[in-house]
Amino acid sequence: MAVGSKKRGKGELWREIKKNKGCYGMIAPFMVFFIVFTIIPVVMSLPMGFTDFNMVQPPKFVGLSNFTTLFLSDKIFMKSIRVTLVFALLTGPVSYVLCFLLAWLINEMHPKLKTVFTLIFYAPSMANVYTVWQLIFSGDMNGYVNSFLINLGIINSPVQWLTDGRYVLGVTIVVQLWISLGAGFLALRAGFQNIDRSMYEAGAIEGIRTRWQELIYIVIPSMGPQLMFAAVMQIVSSFTAGTVAQNLVGFPSTDYKAHTIMTHAFDYGWQRFEMGYASAICMVLFVAMFACNKLINKVLGKYMD
Amino acid sequence: MAQVNTAKLHASNRQAGRRKWGSVAIFLLLAILGLFMALPIYLTIVMSIKPIEELFVFPPKLYAARPTLDNFRDMFRVLHQNRVPFSRYVFNSVFVTAAVTVLQCFFSSMAAFVLAKCKFPGGKIINGIIVVALLYQSNVIYIMQYIVMAKMHMIDTYMALIFPAIASPMGLFLMRQSISQVPDSMIEAAKVDGAGLFRICWQVVMPNQKPALMTLIIFAFQGAWNIQTGSIVFKEEYKTLPTVVGQAAASGLARAGVAMAAAVFLLIPPIIIFMLAQRQVIETMAHSGIKE
Question: A159 partner at 20 to 30 Å CA-CA among A24, A126, B59, B96?
């Protein structure tokens, strides 16, 4: 904006705001709660990464020292970056594709079957039943996986799925995938349901024959917003994963094999009460997620237009 | 319309056979995958009705030989030992969940409509902030939230349970994405007819948003139902079911069985809501009314 028009610009802005006061009225109830319970806490938490804060004494400003410690001398943090990346790269895209394909295939079913299948696939993310996972992968012969494999003769003695460093990350990834058909999946289901039926008819006239063609030419182009939503949800759930590992393979996991960045933040925040350091860890993670989201937006945006 | 149908008929005649076999294949694929997906929930239910002595047999059985409700009885017995009557916890949970679900859906829908369909100063910034808020996960936020609530004297009240859950960026983002698909022409037409924003939102836009709204109800209900009161409410009178049931599950003798019973018990209401809402989603068949 030119400097000269600043004053006029201000008046214009004020006029725009007044003209749209209906909009502000509609958004106000949400924004009041959003500002008080999300924005203010977030803004208050931002400077914490630059402090030494133990929740008892007031935070002490320490500059960038949290970040230099993180990247230069915290070996376990480096390990957690690797675990998080492996975890996110394996679970994120796989479950994103699964969410979409399953939502699409369910959409082709008879209406009565749709509810049943949607429930079956969504239910694991509804119930945080880690106890049952522990029993399934239990290290003694009573574990379901062990007894199944022993009966088949594949293994002779029980495998320590939850404590053997070779398996903990794999088991965590399997369970994470199991519960990953969550918000993104349901949003996509809703999106499929909202596709205009006459689009399929029009497509049939224009020579679309197979389901596959329908998917490429009709379904995907009209699912842009839902695909975007599912992508964000998938980024959040795959990058911030940690609770699954903590509940399943214990904390800390054997040799830190399933130690994600979020677990690291939990360790410093709630075990050692070094909130400043934990906050710095979360900020690094946020930057990574933000960059990833920008990238996916670009890629998806290219396909949507 | 008739023309469309004949054209489709011709197309489908040739393809009908292949499509039918395709459907069978899809069903089989989903059924096999479904069995795998349902296993943990199924096992949870089975474990919850297994008597203690069956929990530790080898090889572990996929069914309960002598099903019993002992685990549920134990759970309720522990719950009834509390100073506060059990009905109070039920009321707390129902009240908090209902308030959060209704307010969240109501507020999010209106905000989402405006953010998706109106141009006004600040709108773009708010849209950006919503996504950032979704991505910014930090365990420090909860501390700050606690500080904010403490300053407003909300700790140990229903407000501490309800207010923070109302403005969920995820719910807003979901609705905004869905409403952005509504053609502008529909809204312009309503504006020409002299309808205000509130009326356009609830009488023109939202009736077309049943799938997204029902999905939001599922998320809101599930989130609110599972609110853990541990760190914001210390009075027994304000605790919710997940908190006390969790306590009961942790204190039982045969922990595995009682924990499963607790999980099954807590899962029933969200599943009922899920079934009801999903049926609404599936009944929606987008008609040509929403076309551009």
Answer: A126
Q: Which residues of A touch B58 (CB under 8 A)?
A: 141-142, 147
Mark which residues 89-128 of A lie under 8 Å from B by CB. 102, 105-106, 108-109, 111, 113-115, 117-124, 126-128
Dig out the tokens for A200 from the structure.
């399929």
Q: Is residue A254 part of a domain?
A: yes
CATH code of the domain in which A249 resides: 1.10.3720.10
Is residue A12 less than 8 Å (CB to CB) from chain B? no
pLDDT digits (tens, 9 = 90+) for B60-87: 777 887 888 888 888 888 888 878 888 8
B281 and A202 within 8 Å at the Cβ level: the answer is: no
In a domain, A22, yes or no: no
Kindly state whether residue A221 falls inside one of the protein's structural domains.
yes
What residues in B contact A275, CB-CB < 8 Å? Answer: 140, 143
Give the C-alpha separation, B245 to B223, whole Å.
17
| pLDDT tens, residue by residue, B210-249 | 899 999 999 999 989 988 777 777 788 888 888 888 777 7
Question: Which residues in chain A have Cβ-Cβ distances shorter than 8 Å to B29?
Answer: 105
Q: Most B CBs within 10 Å: which of A1, A35, A107, A193, as the mutation test of the B interface? A: A193
| Pick from A275, A299, A289, A297: nearest CA to A84 | A289
Which A-chain residues 213-232 have CB contacts (< 8 A) with chain B?
Answer: 222, 225-226, 228-229, 232
Alpha helices in A127-196 (DSSP H): 130-136, 144-152, 168-178, 183-193
Q: For residue A168, which amino acid is it?
A: V
Measuring CA to CA, how many Å separate B96 from each of A141, A207, B100, B172? 43, 53, 6, 20
Set out the domains of chain B in order of their start, with CATH numbers.
Answer: 70-290 (1.10.3720.10)
Distance between start and end Cα atoms, chain A: 29
Domain that holds residue A127: 53-304
Nearest CA in chain A to B14: A209
Predicted interface score ipTM higher than 0.90: no
Count how many domains chain A has. 1
Q: What is the pTM of this model?
A: 0.87
Say if A98 falls within a structural domain: yes
Q: What is the pLDDT of residue B272?
A: 93
Q: Which residues contact A298 (CB under 8 A, 6 or more apart)?
A: none
Query: Is residue B83 exposed (0-12), middle (13-18) or buried (19+ Cβ within 10 Å)?
Result: exposed
